[in-house]
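re the bet — no i am not wrong, look at it urself. input seq straight from the record:
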Amino acid sequence: MADKTITHWHTNGILPGDPPQPCPEFLTQEEAIRYLRLDEVSTEDPAGTLRYYRKKGLLRATQVGRSLRYRRVELERFLEKITETNPR
């Protein structure tokens, strides 16, 4: 059931939050953290978690100027990868 909810807000381009916000194609680190809901789980360092995923090759980011951006499609691929390797 949770998968359908996640798919719903992903396909509609909405970031979770109060209030929900439109989701851009390129997300900042903070937006990627909200998109993956790392801010809602017991993760002490959500930014460090994103770095860990990048180092492991599970998630790709794009450097734009001096900042890293996360393409929404890459975040969706990441979610597919971890779902396939750790289904529950």
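see?? The helical segments are 2-11, 29-36, 46-55, 72-85. told u. also The first strand starts at residue 14 and ends at 15. so pay up
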